[in-house]
Design goal:
It is a single-pass membrane protein. Its main location: mitochondrion. InterPro entries: Mic13 (IPR026769). This protein is mostly helical. Helices cover 71% and strands 0% of the residues. The longest helix has 38 residues. The N terminus is likely disordered.
Length: 127
């Protein structure tokens, strides 16, 4: 017999109509965002994307504080370099996690399922 708590009871689950309405709402939000970004030029060619960048910066730039020594906004090539560096760091960290997680899980499962073998290992290391 399992000591785990059961999932939500049937009476606490939302009806299929409510679940369907939530799905339709989420889908319409995603579709609307994709349509809006497409119309603005985010998914177009590089010229349209650069135009979008300059329009966004023109909207934000008047609200930026005056920073001494900063005559212009950051350039796209420097921003892209930072994005690639962050992406590469994230990929390396993810690969490290993917490599170490199975080993750690195997060790922890061994400790849970066979605690007496862990005690034997501890006795051997203390000698």
């Amino acid at each position: 017999m399992s000591s785990c708590s059961p999932t939500l009871a049937e009476e606490n689950r939302p009806s299929k109509l409510v679940a369907g309405a939530k799905l339709v709402m989420k889908g319409s939000i995603v579709a609307g965002l994709i349509y809006w970004t497409s119309v603005e030029g985010m998914w177009g060619d590089s010229r349209q994307t650069e135009n979008l960048y300059y329009r966004v910066m023109a909207t934000i730039a008047p609200n930026l504080p005056d920073i001494p020594g900063m005559e212009q906004l950051p350039r796209i090539d420097k921003m892209i370099h930072g994005i690639f560096e962050g992406y590469n760091h994230a990929v390396v960290a993810l690969m490290h996690v993917l490599i170490t997680v199975p080993t750690v899980i195997s060790q922890k499962m061994g400790e849970i399922l066979c605690p007496e073998s862990r005690e034997i290992e501890d006795d051997e290391t203390t000698k």
